[in-house]
Write a structure and sequence with these properties.
Elements: H1 3-17, H2 29-45, E1 52-54, E2 62-63, E3 70-79, H3 91-108, E4 112-122, H4 128-142, E5 148-156, E6 162-171, E7 187-191, H5 196-206, H6 218-227, H7 233-241, E8 247-250, H8 255-266, E9 269-273, H9 281-289, H10 294-300, E10 307-311, H11 316-326, E11 330-337, E12 343-346, E13 352-354, E14 369-370, E15 377-378
Parallel strand pairs: 4-5, 9-12
Antiparallel strand pairs: 1-2, 3-6, 4-6, 7-10, 7-11, 8-10, 9-11, 12-13, 14-15
Helix pairs in contact: 2-4, 3-4, 3-7, 5-6, 6-9
């Protein structure tokens, strides 16, 4: 077994057994106090680089961006019971996936992530270990991209855990990707495979003891796609630097929903080819075992954090070469059409149907809503 596979197996083992751990003996947050929390975070997670003039500890951070770059900024608010559930997500999961959600936003813009600010509210009953585990999850996700924690805020909470993250990135003006560049005749692409994260969440919610056999089982693969997704930062930078993408968005709400967002911003429609959607073998087998519709789930399931992007047909051969060089799938799944044609799904028998907007929407009540991590997945 490779070192990476071993590490992934350990992650699954920790995830499925964390509720059986003995009570922590670390100080509670009420014992630690606000200043103690700040000192802890500064000691454990503060980063010093030439670009950080002032980081954690002052009223505001002072940073230096590369010459000629524009600033990119994004923020997310996570609320216990809406965006995550501590019955089956650890504090490490929450921190890791919160960072990935923000990293994925910067990736979708073709940018380079640089700095992170966090604001956290926790009930005083939680302990120092919980706080450190959450921030370690953040750190683990950010480390490959040299993303620095430069500040934020902490507070006690009377009603659950709240986490707000602001990410700062940068990009050269002529390399920024937006949702507004798709044109009629462009091809529609996705990276990776679809629906895996949603299947992994279903395993967590309905299987209290996920299988942990040696090797890469379907269950392990799908769990990892949910618990430890990989933001496509490097790939997005290649697409923007090589000017291969005309528009982009990250797949957080699900293909159907995010495609609608991109098309609305570009003022176009789209035709998606049902038979072209990239589905992993593990996902297909899970859908078959659970008697679910793989196509519908792939369209509506969120939080894969893959990229959805459009490209000129003249770039197709270059994209094929890029996929081969990276040994990573970039799949053409459709084409951009006129706005009046709407957003349709073309089946292999030639029939077409409209793709409705689907995915989790805040403030909209639905009996079938799945309140998952980041509240972005809906079953209907």
């Amino acid at each position: 077994m490779s070192p990476r596979a071993r590490t992934q197996d350990k992650a699954i083992s920790r995830q499925s057994s964390h509720r059986r751990q003995p009570p922590s003996r670390s100080p509670s947050l009420s014992q630690l106090g606000e200043l103690g929390v700040i000192h802890l975070l500064r000691r454990r997670f503060a980063t010093r680089t030439r670009s950080i003039i002032q980081g954690i500890g002052d009223d505001a951070a002072i940073v230096r961006l590369p010459a000629g770059h524009l600033l990119l900024a994004s923020t997310d608010l996570l609320v216990e019971g809406i965006h995550f559930d501590l019955r089956y997500h650890t504090f490490g999961d929450i921190g890791y996936r919160a960072a990935v959600a923000n990293l994925s936003d910067i990736a979708a813009m073709g940018g380079t992530p640089r700095y992170l600010l966090t604001s956290l509210a926790l009930p005083a009953r939680y302990r120092q270990d919980d706080l450190e585990t959450l921030y370690q999850g953040l750190h683990t996700a950010c480390q490959p991209y040299r993303l620095s924690l430069i500040g934020g805020d902490t507070s006690s909470s009377l009603s659950g855990v709240f986490l707000a993250i602001t990410i700062i990135g940068s990009a050269l003006p002529d390399q920024i990707l937006t949702r507004q560049g798709a044109r009629i005749g462009d091809l529609v692409y996705v990276t990776g495979t679809l629906g895996d994260a949603g299947a992994g969440l279903e395993i967590l919610r309905h299987h209290t003891k996920p299988t942990r056999r040696r090797g890469r089982t379907d269950e392990q693969f799908l769990l990892l796609r949910h618990l430890r997704p990989i933001p496509r930062v490097g790939l997005a930078r290649r697409l923007s630097c090589l000017r291969l993408a005309t528009a982009a968005i990250d797949l957080s709400d699900g293909l159907a929903s995010d495609l609608h967002h991109l098309c609305a911003e570009s003022g176009v429609g789209a035709r998606i080819w049902a038979g072209a959607l990239p589905l992993s073998p593990a996902f297909r087998r899970f859908m078959t075992r659970t008697l679910q519709d793989a196509l519908d789930t792939a369209l509506t399931s969120g939080e894969d954090f893959e990229l959805l992007f459009t490209a000129s047909p003249t770039s197709r051969s270059r994209l094929d070469r890029l996929a081969r060089s990276l040994d990573f799938p970039l799949t053409c799944i459709g084409e951009i059409t006129s706005k009046r044609e709407g957003i349709t799904l073309k089946h292999e028998d030639g029939s077409c149907r409209q793709i409705p907007t689907a995915g989790y929407t805040h403030f909209r009540q639905t009996k079938k809503a799945s309140h998952t991590l980041y509240g972005r997945v809906s079953t209907g």
